[in-house]
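Complex 162.
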Amino acid sequence: MSLFSFLRRDGPPHVEPLATSDAGEAAAIHAAGFARGWDLMDMQAMIADRAIRADGLFVGTGRRLTGILLSRTVLDEAEILTVALAPSARGRGWSGLLLREHLAGLAAAGIRTVFLEVEEDNAPAIALYRRHGFTPIGRREAYYPRPGGRHAAALTMRRALD
Ligand SMILES: CC(C)(COP(=O)(O)OP(=O)(O)OC[C@H]1O[C@@H](n2cnc3c(N)ncnc32)[C@H](O)[C@@H]1OP(=O)(O)O)[C@@H](O)C(=O)NCCC(=O)NCCS
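Predicted structure with coenzyme A bound:
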């Protein structure tokens, strides 16, 4: 399906807070993006947690969930816990919309600094974060386990919010 017909049928994407009733779809999107997924109960608990800001990228009038972004807040700092788009929604720049709206919500809630950790070889994620003002502040060698007993390094990044 072309992007034009997709948008005509479903309308442009938009960002709104996740509800606990979105947890099943959110867990499926997370599982499609990561080797170790979060199950339905984990996702429900995180969406219900008042210290966690959980946003979804929705397409169309049917509120079809296509992306998730969760961060944990402590005082005036936040840490991004996860960001993932459904595989069919990737490559369209929608992750930028989701991250931009999420950061705006954090800033409006008084958050001044945002941290995250990302696998050093996750090029799309690092490009996304750099484009939105995150800069590397540290590196953790052999941090993420990989199949076959190998490991990948983690990059720690930070962004100040105005
Ligand atoms: C990370 C993720 C949310 C990004 O969403 P996306 O729709 O794939 O990203 P986009 O197509 O908008 O691309 C983001 C940037 O990466 C670049 N990019 C995409 N694929 C790339 C690749 N293979 N190599 C290098 N850069 C790449 C794009 O050009 C874009 O850069 P730009 O903003 O400077 O133009 C998505 O890939 C995903 O869900 N991945 C699985 C879960 C994951 O890894 N999450 C991050 C964990 S920290």
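Residues 94-108 form the longest helix (15 residues).
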